[in-house]
Amino acid sequence: MLLSLPILAEPQRFSVVEKIVFAGMILASGYLFWRRFGVVLNKILTSKKDSNFHLFPIGKRVWEFFWEVLCQAKVIRERPLPGVAHALVFWAFLAFALVTLNHCATGLGAGFVSPDGLIGRWYFYFAAAFAMACAVGILGLFVRRFLVRPKWLGEKLSWESGFIAFLIFALMATYLGSFFVADADTAARVLWWAHTLALLTFLPLIPHTKHLHLVLSPATIFLSRGSYAQIPPLSGDEDFGLVAGTDLTQLVSLQAYSCVECGRCTEHCPAANTGKLLNPKEIILGVRAYLNDLGPASDHPLLGKYNSQEAVFQCTTCGACEFQCPVGIEHVPILVGLRRGAVNTGAWEDDYGSKLFLALERGSNALGISPLDRDKFIQKQALPIFDGTQEYCLWLGCMGGYDPKGREIVADFARVMNYLGASYGVLRKEKCTGDPARRLGNDLVFQQLAEGNLEALAQNKVKKIVSICPHCVRTIQEDWKEYGTPPEIEHHSEFLARFADKLPQQSKDETIVFHDPCYLGRYRNVYEEPRAVAGLAGTVVEAPRNHERSFCCGAGGGLAFLGEETGERVSHNRAAELVATGASTVGTACPFCNTMFRDALAAGGEAPPQLLDIAQLAARGLPAGSSVIDSGLK
Amino acid sequence: MKIIVAIKQVPDRDAQFRIDGAGKWIEEADLQFALNESDAYALEEALQLKEKHGGEVVVLSTGPERIGQTIREALAKGADRAINIACDDLGARDALGVARLLAAAVKQESPDLLLTGLQSEDLGLGQTGVILAELLGLPHASLILHVEKTETGLTVRRELEEGWFQSIELPTPAVLTIQSGGNKLRYATLMGIKRAKTKEVRQLTAAELGVDATPVVVLEGVALPQKQKSTQILAGSPKEQAAALVEKLKFEVRVL
After folding, report:
1. What's the pLDDT score for residue A44?
2. Among A345, A353, A371, beta carbon nearest to B191
3. Distance from CA of A450 to the nearest CA of B (A)
4. For chain A, how many structural domains are there in total?
5. What are the tens digits of pLDDT across the range A219-257?
6. Do A470 and A419 reside in the same domain of the chain?
7. From B33, which residue of chain A is nearest by alpha-carbon distance?
8. Which residues in chain B have Cβ-Cβ distances shorter than 8 Å to A234?
């Protein structure tokens, strides 16, 4: 059966002249590749060392490499059709490694896989299958880029991409064509040379174009910082964040050169989608342009010509960009890093920002309200004071302690905790966790707040915290680590979901569209718990963008405290999407989302859906009075 | 232009105050302290003048050890160096005593301009800056929102009642007490704090300065305001009640 199938043709003899020409071409191609790649590599390697980088534990890195690089899982999951097309090309490249080596060796008279040997036959068929898949894949990508033209790829057509697609197609076609000619045919020789030419043209183009990702992105994915949206600690007394080229670390430079310009980050960015200046792809390309022009030893500021300060401060740190990126770029630390560089040196001047920082320097909360106001709220709600004997410390946060809507959420959550017989208390004094300062890049204020809070929690012997605010949860659990060991903390959705079977099930008639907060979903990987709680009050429906693809409310990254947005308001964009589901209730799990939607829904027109936090939805079903059930809690 | 800014550390305004055992001052143990608000504006004005015209900004203060934190903040915001006169019983001093201490230190520096906040948030006497001018024999102006350097001296903008302003020219050296709100305050930065570590803080004592700061005005005692709660029930039809309420809100409570 196998014998009747065609065999890959190879020119049998190469003249000395041919061999010399071929060797010369390899050298020229390799030289042209290295002339650019060496420069890039040098820029990456001479960048500042990442002081907190740890290769271990390596298991997670190996898994991510296997899953995201070899299996192309993220590429396919987030954009299935182009993702599969890309995977076909990628897998064909892997399969072609041996084919290409043998091809070159043959040209020098040292071929080591014989096409009519058993291994050769099998392997070349195997590669041929991939070659066909690759040809289909690259055609598909070509059609997408030049005929479908999704706007995320940029307005300008990239002719270099077209040429590269042509080269890849030519590589596959010349390979497949060789199965239909005989070794001695002139055609075999022509095809062999055509294949060679395509190959050796392709190689130097790699480092000169975005196809550099072929070489770099496997390393970028393997060498990630270790966790999502992780803001690295500053190192030493002269580190203020990303101020100049000398602050760009090896990881940042590697990531900047890895960008494949696919635009997934931009496609999902709340700022880019609402007419703002910020475009995460352009931020990364701005860093790359800086490295190309000035290099990592320059003390020229990073913000200015290459990236705009205005754009950098439009980021809500929702992290959709980083979550989507298929080549391992970590946008959030870069954006926050650029903010740190501007704020820690005083270069950022913004009235609202200064007001926020001054309120946090002097006061206790981001809203700039007297802490006496919080005391009054605690008294009015008769919230127990934490005295070290209770199991949970209920962390109010700025929104829960000072914002009217946030207080309603806290009050209802406390009712549910009372019903469940949970033992909890609130701290007499609490300071802002420092979330807005952290995300806006003010390390001084953040450190003061983190240290002050850690000390207060230790004094009060707090072991477990529960909070209604995903921003508090994230900041306490992850960001405070830089300054001490925070207590265990969970979001109230996680707490409530554990006891969902103990809470009354209400009618299923009401439809509730649940909005995933960025800091609960992407940042904490908690998606089902709040849905389980919302499900107690009705039937949960989904907005088009949900779970990992949830669209930000616009408040994150400290932006809730800055002035009016340019372009469309992010919250209006998202609120319209939630309203369009036809749900009678919008369910939230973050007091910031709640306050953003409160305004957006009110502006949206008549009879907007009601807006309730999951704690309020759960509390609605409780019997009147002060009954307590036995939930197994202390 | 050499500018001295006299600053004071005061208890955080949002704190809950308690009277100390002796009944002469507030319990300081649990309090948080911060830079007096109008002093922050005086510092900001000084920093902006320095940025425009060059020179040096020196912060001058007197107080116990805890004032170091506030001095560091002022240095972090951009002051070049600091002078502190150790004083553990600031609460018992009167404005004249404090001004004598400060004046002695200022004399050693002979600045072109001396700024203070209009008044402190804790005692609110509003006298220290004015007495300082007298002790130093310098011209002064109070309630200043804006300072402009001219060929011959200064043009300053004073705040009067009801949105009126006054523009005044005066020669240097001079003493100005600065009103809050004339500028936008800058926030402290990490770089500022790191740089502040290497800046000079000169520690002085009353004895070194040869100043007798015995108070002329003696503090008898302090008291917390008594809470008054008086509920009034308004009679009449709802319309009359509403009218009476508006009347009270307008003329008694003065919130309308």
Report:
1. 98
2. A345
3. 15
4. 4
5. 999 999 988 999 999 998 999 999 999 999 999 999 999
6. yes
7. A362
8. 190
